[in-house]
């Protein structure tokens, strides 16, 4: 039994100054966590109970699926990560250190390399496969701006598991088993989720899906079809590209003066206001303009590469999408010094004619998939205050390739059925990858097949944010008064509040009731504090968020106690002699 009189707990009436989101505010105010350092938190007793319950459910579902648990150290040697390139690719996000012998070490952000080497050390035959092993371990990433409490920290706990198979069919089967196990896990935890297509990023591999909890404060943006089952992180959204059109018979491009058109809107207005520049079929729109954005790609080895991206003018370039497409390179702004190195680029009037690997600038030029052969565009003429009208893709310019980099708009057509898509925000709670052979090849993980031939093992990687799940549950389960924990992970089943005068009958009655509830198998938090007003106790009960609150107060004179459902607010007076059976029923079936 937990007693408020001795529990290591101090609730707060005011929000912490650095808290940006409800979960951070309420977990600190409720005495579940305390900040230890930027991006690092101490779990206090109530928080640790909640965390352990989340971890237990994750572990039970992994074990139920037949995956085996191992445990690696968090501090690892440099060499395996050097072999896969991730020592460099992780850049400043990787915590690096040296031991007393001047050996390079790291605090692991993920453990693909170590799992791969472990299997290589012990297994050598196809008969040993398939294999799925997992761990629940602390991870470290040197986030530039840790924020939102447990949602984005520098230290966090993940469940990461890895599958090892002889071929692609085996990998698909292992992937599906993990996917099913994740569904079971999040349903037991009571977390709403969307499964969305995602980018693999620095992890590598092919197929990748995220489990996102739809929450307004989420850092991930995703789309879902309003008519079908398509859903994708905006970084991975596919553009439904139009069919290419013939270029024969299209009018020649015209270069014209366009003074006083500082924005695309003013440019479009000017085009539609001049008879000699109007389209013959309809008005020009912002979507008919071609916006060419130049940037620098910063590679992990420190080299810099210029890149130009062309998108329809009604959209901006989404740098998160660029980063996801081109990882591990990171985009950065094109500076004045960069423009000075490329004099053919006229800022604000950059056109395709000076872009491309075969152009005078030599800058690689990638375009949005909507820019197909035969489409006509208004774009910069590479001269101040001048644009070219009617430039035709495939006739007047040819890009070096395509890239999914334009921002996604609410209402964009679904790439599968054409219905409108809607945009939502979410927090990533799980991610599953079909890694393929990237890590096995880098670390020489092979087995002999049934014919005695050497085969490279194919792998999958599967992560769940265990500590993050606590914050997600807090985000999804609170009101203005405090937390409202789902029963499966609440710190107690019942919060018994003594609301009576010192030496009154309420104290002994609450003690007896709490003992009977505990004997019946329920977890009890008893607020037995002396000298604390009932109002403070009630406020703390609301803040802490135990799903059922029992008040032993004035009604005791009539032989009843008050039972309150924290989520619905429903209150009922229940006879003292019947309350244990009633609460057991509520807690085991509710």
3D architecture notes:
The chain is α+β, with helices and mostly antiparallel strands. The chain is built from 14 helices and 32 strands. The strands form 8 sheets. Strands 4, 8, 9, 10, 11, 12, 13, 22 and 25 form a 9-stranded mixed beta sheet that branches. Strands 1-29-28-30-31-32 form a 6-stranded mixed beta sheet, with helices on both faces. A hairpin with a 2-residue loop joins β2 and β3. α1 (22-29) packs across α11 (466-476), α2 packs antiparallel against α6 and α2 crosses α11 (466-476). The longest helix is centred in the first third of the chain and has 22 residues, at 168-189. The two termini are 21 Å apart. The model has no long low-confidence stretch (mean pLDDT 94).
The low-confidence parts are: none
**Major beta sheet, specifics?**
9 strands, mixed
Distance between the termini: 21 Å
| Number of extended strands | 32
Structural class: alpha+beta
Relative helix content: 25-40%
Indicate the mean pLDDT.
94
- As a percent range, the share of strand residues is 25-35%
Q: Can you count the helices?
A: 14
Shape, per Cα inertia axes: globular
Rounded to an integer, what's the Rg over CA atoms?
A: 30 Å
Secondary structure layout plus pairing:
Layout lengths: L1 E2 L18 H8 L3 E5 L2 E4 L1 H20 L3 E2 L5 E3 L1 H6 L1 H4 L5 E4 L5 E4 L4 H11 L8 E10 L14 E11 L2 H22 L4 E4 L10 E7 L5 E6 L5 E3 L20 E4 L6 H10 L16 E9 L5 E9 L6 H8 L3 E4 L2 H6 L22 E4 L8 E5 L5 E7 L8 E2 L18 E16 L1 H6 L2 E3 L5 E3 L1 E8 H11 L1 E2 L2 E2 L10 E5 L7 H14 L4 E4 L6 H11 L3 E5 L7 E6 L5 E5 L3 H11 L1
Parallel strand pairs: 1-29, 4-8, 16-18, 18-21, 28-29, 28-30
Antiparallel strand pairs: 2-3, 5-7, 6-7, 8-9, 9-25, 10-11, 11-22, 12-13, 12-22, 14-20, 15-16, 15-17, 19-20, 22-25, 23-24, 26-27, 30-31, 31-32
Helix pairs in contact: 1-11, 2-6, 2-11
